[in-house]
Structures are given as C-alpha cells and as structure tokens.
Write a structure and sequence with these properties.
By secondary structure, this protein is α/β, with parallel strands linked by helices. The chain has nine helices and 13 strands. The protein has a seven-stranded parallel sheet with strand order 3-2-1-4-5-6-11, with helices on both faces. Strands 7-10 form a two-stranded parallel sheet. A two-stranded parallel ribbon has the order 8-13. The structure holds nicotinamide-adenine-dinucleotide (NAD) and uridine-5'-diphosphate (UDP) (2 copies).
Length: 319
C-alpha cells in the first residue's frame, strides 16, 4: 500500500461493469485508477466520478504495456457483447491475451493482487447443466465466438501459470450474464435490445424459438461478489462462477419487458445466431461457500425495473 490508502486499478473502468465497480470502490477509502481505451465504454459512464478527488482516468489500451503503481488490479477490459467482440475479432483476442500478459506483468512487478473478469463463455455451448467450475466446457475454437471464448480461456491459463510460475495472488471470476443501468443501448445483448425495442415500440426480436435459457444477474449483486472475491485469502484463486442461478427462457424475458414497459411491441422471430448456447445457468455453490454466504439479492423483476428506468431517462435526455 502506498501511503495510507489502497490504490486500485480497474481496466475497462469506463464500461458497464467497470463504472459500477469504480463507484463502489470509491465508497471505501480507496484510490481508483480507471484505465480504458473507450472501445465500448464511454466518458458518460464515469462523468459523475471525474471530479472525485480519489478518482483518476487514464486513456490507454491494455494491449500495450502499462507502468503504474497499484495494490490491486481488476482486469475488466474487453468488449463483452457478441456484436462488439465480433466487430474486430483479432483485437478482441489481443485484448484478452496481450492485455492479460501486460496486466499480469504489472501485477508481478508491483506485487499486486489481480482479478480477471472471465466469463461463462469459457464453457462454450455446455453439455452439462448447471455448470460447475470443474466442467471444462464445450467451446468451438474456430467459430465466430472463439475470439472471445478462446481469448478468455487463454487468459485463464495465463493467470494460473503466473500463479504457478511466479506466485502471483490471482483471482478468476467466471461472470454469467449481467445486466443493469449503463449497459450499452446498441450492444445487441438481449436485455438492452428488448428494453430499447419496447421503449421505441419496435418489434421485440427473438432469435430462434425463444426457448433457450439464460440467468440474469443484476449489476450490484455482481459487483459485491467481485469485491468479496478480491478480499479472499491468497489460497483462493477460483475460477469461481458468479451470476444468478434463476433461469429464464428468452421468451419469458421478452414478455416481462413488454409487461413492465407497457409497450405495444409485437414479438418477431429471427434466425438463431451460430454457436448460440441453448442453456446457461451457474452453479454458485462455491461462491456461496467462499464469499461469506454471498448470493444475488435482486430479483429479475426489480432489476429490470431499474434498467428500464435508466434507458427511459437516457432516451428522454437524448431527445
Ligand atoms: P463493456 O464493453 O461495457 O466494458 C468493457 C470495457 O473495456 C469498455 O469500457 C471498453 O472500452 C474497455 N476496453 C476494451 N478493450 C480495451 C483495451 N484493449 N484497453 C483498454 N480498455 C479496453 O463490457 P462489460 O459488460 O462491462 O464487461 C466487462 C468485463 O466483464 C469484460 O471483460 C467481459 O468479458 C466480462 N463479462 C461481462 C459479462 C456481462 O454480462 N456484462 C459477462 C461475462 C463477462
Ligand atoms: N509489463 C507492464 N507493466 C509492468 C511490467 C510489465 O505492462 O509494470 C508488461 C511487459 O511489457 C511485459 C509483460 O508485462 O511484456 C509481461 O511481463 P513479465 O515480467 O511477466 O514478462 P517479460 O517482461 O519477461 O516478458
Ligand atoms: N437474443 C435474442 N434477441 C436479441 C438478442 C439476443 O433472442 O435481440 C438471444 C440470443 O440469441 C441468446 C440470448 O438472447 O440466446 C442471450 O444473448 P446475449 O447476446 O445477450 O448474450 P449471450 O448469448 O452471450 O449469453
């Protein structure tokens, strides 16, 4: 620790999850260094933090080396939605792999703890349900999602090897679908798509027959888990599933959004994208046990209400 205060680096801090994490870290007596290249994140997400005396913003691409002095690193930088990560797939892999190497090199030099934002996508299209951390996954190394899935899998490998080879204090969080205010309105993810479509009175686009499932975790619950994981002892490395185990079909989600927005939007079917997982639900037993009884507290109905309010307010401001 330099001086009295802990200095925490959040890569991807101007993104959806990163901005909420920065906000939460500032509630403690922590200095926060937010590093972002604004690939998918925005200044608007952290506008309210810019004047905070313990907040610092650095525009930087983590595929290049970074020399700063910090005590903890949350490595969140990476486009997360299929539309964004498939836009420039080579850059996506570079961010996951080169970015991880640089952040691990930094952690090694300054002896910082480092947490990796990994993903449920490491399980690919799972054949085991729900997914436990011991499941090695069913990923396609050459498909259109591979830049993200395999990039994140390789990052996990690097984290484990920096621990085995250099003794780093690492943490790997496998994050399942998370939603909430500050999601990118055009990121193509199902919650933002459905809410924006409902608010605009446009058709709600269901890919496939809508029977595929996801489990949605509200952002505040996820951020709480990330903080608790970072605070675990050095022996706890993960990988650890973090998400909400309540599972919904995409059709149920669409109906809930229509009901909550009071929208007149009709449902429209579109083809299912390739490699789209049929089912996804985390087994969070390990997280519950290790993170002091942590579990998601926000029901989908309540989280959706807050998310809809955010998008509604945002579209009014844009008019
Ligand atoms: P996001 O796109 O809102 O945030 C990612 C941030 O990283 C953005 O601000 C972007 O500008 C920044 N970034 C991208 N490439 C960078 C680079 N090379 N250098 C510096 N900054 C860069 O996405 P998010 O939903 O907030 O996701 C954050 C992290 O959590 C990602 O690593 C993602 O893979 C992981 N994750 C998210 C979810 C989810 O449901 N939101 C699920 C699983 C994993
Ligand atoms: N690195 C960095 N910041 C640091 C220390 C290292 O960005 O404070 C980068 C550096 O560019 C290197 C990478 O991290 O390429 C991996 O560092 P490491 O020390 O593990 O390996 P080496 O320098 O031997 O390649
Ligand atoms: N989806 C959908 N309509 C949309 C956007 C997504 O039916 O407008 C589906 C998508 O095919 C997938 C699920 O919703 O089955 C979740 O998609 P998302 O891109 O949010 O996340 P991921 O597939 O990475 O879990």
């Amino acid at each position: 620790m330099r001086g009295d205060r802990k200095r925490v680096l959040v890569t991807g801090g101007a993104g959806f999850l990163g901005s909420h994490l920065c906000e939460r870290l500032l509630e403690d007596d922590t200095e926060v260094l937010c590093v972002d290249n604004f690939y998918t994140g925005t200044r608007e997400n952290i506008e309210h933090l810019l004047r905070h005396p313990r907040f610092e913003l650095l525009r930087h691409d983590i595929t290049f080396p970074l020399y700063v002095e910090v005590d903890e690193i949350y490595n969140l930088a990476c486009p997360a939605s299929p539309v964004h990560y498939q836009f420039d797939p080579v850059q996506t892999t570079k961010t996951s792999v080169h970015g991880a190497i640089n952040m691990l090199g930094l952690a090694k030099r300054v002896k910082a703890r480092i947490l990796q934002a990994s993903t449920s996508e490491v399980y690919g299209d799972p054949q085991v349900h729900p997914q436990q951390e011991s499941y090695c996954g069913h990923a396609n190394p050459i498909g259109v999602r591979a830049c993200y899935d395999e990039g994140k899998r390789c990052a996990e490998t690097l984290f484990m090897d920096y621990r085995r080879q250099h003794g780093l204090a690492i943490k790997i969080a496998r994050i399942f679908n998370t939603y909430g205010p500050r999601m990118h309105p055009n990121d193509g993810r199902v919650v933002s798509n459905f809410v924006m479509q409902a608010l605009r009175g446009e058709p709600i686009t269901i890919y496939g027959d809508g029977s595929q499932t996801r489990s949605f975790c509200y952002v505040d619950d996820l951020v709480e888990a990330l903080l608790r994981l970072m605070a675990t002892d050095d022996a706890t490395t993960g990988p650890m599933n973090l998400g909400n185990p309540r599972e919904f079909t995409i059709l149920q989600l669409a109906e809930m959004v229509i009901e909550q927005t009071g929208s007149k939007s009709k449902i429209e079917r579109r083809p299912l994208p390739s490699d789209d997982p049929r089912q996804r639900r985390p087994d969070i037993g390990y997280a519950r046990k290790t993170l002091g009884g942590w579990e998601p507290l926000t029901p989908l109905e309540m989280g959706l209400r807050k998310t809809i309010a955010y998008f509604r307010d945002r579209s009014l401001r844009a008019v």
